[in-house]
Amino acid sequence: QVQLVESGGGLVQPGGSLRLSCAASGRIFRINAMGWYRQAPGKQRELVANITNDGITNYADSVKGRFTISRDNAKNTLYLQMNSLKPEDTATYYCTADIMRTIWTARDYWGQGTQVTVSS
Q1: 5 three-state secondary structure
Q2: What is the distance between the alpha carbons of residues 105 and 111, in angstroms, rounded to a whole number?
Q3: Per-position DSSP letters for 22-86, written without gaps between them
Q4: pLDDT digit string (tens) for 76-120?
Q5: How far apart are the C-alpha atoms of 48 and 57, rounded to whole Å?
Q6: What angle (nearest 5°) sits at the alpha carbon of residue 12, between those of residues 7 and 16?
């Protein structure tokens, strides 16, 4: 069994910062790409940022320059540092990872989501 557990969401004022974490646990041989998605009420889930196993990153245009994705491979943990937050960043944020449980098997896993609300 593999689990992804997010933490770090909450309520923050516009211009503020939050740091999300996502810890992977269970039987893990290797974690390939990891990423953050978000979904606001009434909208489709969208990619926020992703990162390869060797640290290559990709960001949605809407968060470039404000958000930073990183990972600690030794801890099987993914992070999202969010600065200069805007009300339009309000959403449920989901962690995802392409995880190999054995050398022969790989699939995508998703966390349960953590709520980020940006409001004064």
Answers
A1: strand
A2: 19
A3: EEEEES-SEEEEEEEEEE-TTS--EEEEEE-TT--EEE-TTTTTTEEEEEETTTTEEEEEE-S--
A4: 999 999 999 999 999 999 999 999 999 999 999 999 999 999 999
A5: 11
A6: 105
